[in-house]
C-alpha cells in the first residue's frame, strides 16, 4: 500500500528528502519511493520517523549530519519486532511494539533501553497489559494512552489520575507546557502551565491535575489538538473552538472590530471562516492540528486552511507572508484524509 504525503514548511535538515531549505507551497512527495512505501510515524522539527520494510527509518538530522535517511541501529536481540507507535524530541525516541514493550532510544548515545510501567491505577480492574494506542512527546515531557483509557505521564511512565474525568479517555495531546485529554463523552480536560491562557479556564493559573474546560461543557467534542501555547477542539458538527496564545494569529480568528489587533483568549472561542471576498462560508471542518505557532484545518470539501506563523512556509504560502492572522485556503485535493502539523510543518495525508 502506497502513502502520499504533501508537505509545506521547514526542510532545514533534509527531513523531507528535498534540497530546498523550506517550501513556499505544498509539495507532493509521491515520486519518492522511500516515502511512498513507508508509513509516517512521527514528525519533529529536525527529523521524521518512518516505518518501512519492518524497520524504522530516520530522515533528517542524525549523528551531527543533515539529509540523512537511515535505519535506526536496533540491537540484534530486537530482531523481527514490528513497531507500531513512535514519538520523538531532541533527546530521545520512544518506540512501542505490538507486544506493548516500550523502548527508549537515546539520540546522543544511540543506546536502546527497555522500560516498564512502574506505577498504575489502584483500581483492581486496571489491567497493566492494556495495549498502548498513542504516545506523544514534547521536549519536556511525554504522555501515553492505553486502549482502556489509562494515561501515563513522563519519559518513564507514571500513571496519571484521571478518576475525576467523566468518561473514558480516548485521546491525549501535549504542548510546550500544557496537556490536554478528551473522553468518549466529548469532554475536554487540561492541566499544566496556564500562563498564556492555553488551559482554557479563563485565568493564568497552573494546574497539577486535569480540569474540565467548562466553556465546552454540553458540546460533543470529537477531536482535540495542542500547539506550543494554544489549543483547539473540534465538535461533532464540524465547529472549531480555539483558545490560548495568539501572538502570530495561530487561533485563526478574524477580528471584526477596528483597530485590528490580535487577541489571545482564555476561554474557547468559535471560529468563523471567510473567503477571499470576506464572505462567511458554511463548510464543516473534519480535521484540525496545531503546530508550534500555527494551525491547519481540513474541510469537508477537501480544502486545507491555515493560520499563524509562516517563517518556514508552514502555512503553504510564500515566506514573504510572515504570518496569517486568520484562516485562509492554502491547498485543495480530492483525496485528503487528514492533516498533521509538526512544529514548523503542515502535512496532508492521502
Explain what the structure shows.
The protein is mostly beta strands. Helix content is 1%, strand content 46%. The chain is built from one helix and 28 strands. The strands form seven sheets. Strands 2-1-28-27 form a four-stranded antiparallel beta sheet, with no helix packed on it. Strand 23 (285-290) and strand 24 (294-299) form a beta hairpin. Mean pLDDT is 90; it is low at 120-126.
Q: Strand sequence of the main sheet, in spatial order?
A: 2-1-28-27
Global outline: globular
User: Would you tell me the structural class of the helices and strands?
Assistant: mainly beta
Instruction: Give the rounded overall mean pLDDT.
Output: 90
End-to-end C-alpha gap: 12 Å
Largest sheet: number of strands, sense, barrel closure: 4 strands, antiparallel
Oligomer: single chain
Number of helices: 1
- Which percent band covers the strand fraction? over 45%
Number of strands: 28
Helical fraction: under 10%
Low-confidence stretches: 120-126
Radius of gyration (Å): 20 Å
Order of helix and strand elements from N to C terminus: EEHEEEEEEEEEEEEEEEEEEEEEEEEEE
Quickly describe the structure.
The chain is mainly β. Helix content is about 0%, strand content about 45%.
Topology (SSEs and partners):
Layout: E1 5-10, E2 22-28, H1 33-36, E3 39-43, E4 47-52, E5 55-62, E6 65-71, E7 83-88, E8 92-97, E9 102-106, E10 112-115, E11 132-137, E12 142-146, E13 151-153, E14 158-160, E15 169-174, E16 178-183, E17 188-192, E18 207-212, E19 221-226, E20 230-235, E21 240-244, E22 265-270, E23 285-290, E24 294-299, E25 303-309, E26 323-332, E27 338-341, E28 345-349
Amino acid at each position: 500500500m502506497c502513502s502520499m504525503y504533501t508537505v509545506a514548511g521547514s526542510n532545514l535538515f533534509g527531513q523531507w528528502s528535498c534540497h530546498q531549505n523550506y517550501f513556499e507551497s505544498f509539495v507532493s512527495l509521491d515520486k519518492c519511493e522511500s516515502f511512498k512505501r513507508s508509513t509516517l510515524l512521527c514528525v519533529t522539527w529536525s527529523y521524521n520517523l518512518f516505518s518501512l520494510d519492518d524497520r524504522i527509518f530516520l530522515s533528517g538530522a542524525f549523528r551531527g549530519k543533515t539529509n540523512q535517511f537511515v535505519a535506526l541501529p536496533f540491537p540484534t536481540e530486537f530482531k523481527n519486532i514490528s513497531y507500531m507507535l513512535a514519538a520523538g524530541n531532541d533527546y530521545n525516541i520512544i518506540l512501542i511494539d505490538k507486544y506493548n514493550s516500550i523502548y527508549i532510544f537515546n539520540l546522543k548515545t544511540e543506546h536502546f533501553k527497555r522500560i516498564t510501567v512502574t506505577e498504575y491505577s489502584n483500581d483492581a480492574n486496571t489491567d497493566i497489559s492494556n495495549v498502548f494506542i498513542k504516545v506523544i512527546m514534547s521536549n519536556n515531557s511525554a504522555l501515553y494512552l492505553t486502549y482502556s483509557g489509562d494515561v501515563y505521564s513522563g519519559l518513564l511512565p507514571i500513571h496519571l489520575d484521571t478518576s475525576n474525568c467523566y468518561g473514558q479517555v480516548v485521546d491525549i495531546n501535549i504542548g510546550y507546557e500544557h496537556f490536554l485529554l478528551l473522553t468518549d463523552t466529548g469532554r475536554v480536560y487540561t492541566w499544566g502551565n496556564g500562563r498564556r491562557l492555553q488551559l482554557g479556564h479563563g485565568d493564568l493559573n497552573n494546574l497539577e491535575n486535569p480540569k474540565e474546560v467548562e466553556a465546552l461543557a454540553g458540546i460533543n467534542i470529537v477531536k482535540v489538538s495542542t500547539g506550543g501555547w494554544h489549543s483547539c477542539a473540534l465538535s461533532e458538527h464540524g465547529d472549531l473552538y480555539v483558545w490560548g496564545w495568539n501572538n502570530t494569529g495561530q487561533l485563526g480568528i478574524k477580528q471584526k472590530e477596528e483597530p485590528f489587533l490580535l487577541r489571545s483568549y482564555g476561554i474557547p472561542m468559535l471560529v468563523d471562516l471567510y473567503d477571499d471576498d470576506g464572505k462567511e462560508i458554511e463548510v464543516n471542518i473534519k480535521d484540525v492540528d496545531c503546530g508550534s505557532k500555527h494551525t491547519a484545518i481540513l474541510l469537508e470539501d477537501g480544502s486545507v486552511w491555515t493560520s499563524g506563523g509562516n517563517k518556514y512556509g508552514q502555512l503553504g504560502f510564500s515566506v514573504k507572508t510572515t504570518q496569517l492572522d486568520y484562516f485562509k485556503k492554502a491547498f485543495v485535493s480530492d483525496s485528503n484524509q487528514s492533516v498533521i502539523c509538526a512544529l514548523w510543518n503542515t502535512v496532508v495525508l492521502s
